[in-house]
Amino acid sequence: MLIEREAESCYLGQFIPLQYHHNMLMDSNRMDNFKAAIQYRVFEGAKVLELGGGTGVLSWFAAQTAEKVYCVEFNPDMVAEARRLLALNHRGERVQVIHADAFEYLPPEPVDFVICEMIHVAMLREKQVEVIENFKQRYAEKFPGHMPIFIPEAVVMAVQPLQQRYDFLGFQAPIIQFQLPGAFTADTTELGQPALYKIIDFTQTNEKLIEWEGQIAIEHSGQLSALRFITKNILAIRGEDNSTIDWLNHYMALPLARPISVRAGDLIHIRFAYRTGASIDSLQNAIEVEVDQVQSPSRSQPILASV
């Protein structure tokens, strides 16, 4: 069983290269917001567990106030790297880096917080949901009546219709694209507003299958050529002012197999189903789009499209 999961993990990106983890240290959006959430949540003397620790930086944030941090990492290269880096940093000695499988490890004592950042857009590829749901069940059996606070606390996901240009110096290539949130590009036109399709609350039991069927109103005429998937991670909820500390993943734009002409007032009906932690292809192949166009003598039939 462990061999099968290890093989799947390698395929789905769990053993990503060391340099990728180094690049994440340079991602100010990710780093700033996780640091803020951990500083807000973790109190003096707390006990913390991180599942999938990578370089150990999130555990180190927690160690500035926590008494003890258990940092679990399955990749032996990352275990060595986390230990090396933590030894260079003040209070890094508060972090115990443990070479173990997050699907199997339990701390030797109750913890107050669990940090887990195994997150990909749309909760694909990485095993955030599976790891946390598995952990909650095993932890409740070992420490009944006590459940830690999770960071992130929740994930909000939405889908949005796009007109996406796929011209690369004359080379036509409808490819999956990852886009910076808030960055304007003339190659992308938002044809409608994002539609919420899933909220994952880690205080609740979450199913691994995500299914959605809904509709979005087209606000701007154009060529519907892609669907954008948006994933916002609620890292911490600030009860005193009813605000949140968030981390927004890069957008993921999946191209449609055939662009569809749409105009303002049309409704697009979207259906898809996929399992968390699965490949991007599993979502891409499941998407169905039907356009109910504004009635006119020449445009009176629904048009179907798939990704």
UniProtKB/TrEMBL annotation:
Claim: Transferase is one of the keywords in the record: yes
Domain of life: Bacteria
Any one Gene Ontology BP term: methylation
Domain Methyltransferase residue range list: 48-136
UniProt-recorded Gene Ontology molecular function terms: histone methyltransferase activity; protein-arginine N-methyltransferase activity
InterPro entries: Arg_MeTrfase, Methyltransf_25, SAM-dependent_MTases_sf
Pfam family, one: Methyltransf_25
Gene3D superfamilies: Vaccinia Virus protein VP39
Keyword vocabulary terms for this entry: Methyltransferase, Transferase
PANTHER family referenced in this protein's UniProt entry, alphabetically: PROTEIN ARGININE N-METHYLTRANSFERASE, PROTEIN ARGININE N-METHYLTRANSFERASE 3
Name used for this protein in its record: Methyltransferase domain-containing protein
Organism: Undibacterium nitidum
Lineage per the UniProt record: Bacteria, Pseudomonadati, Pseudomonadota, Betaproteobacteria, Burkholderiales
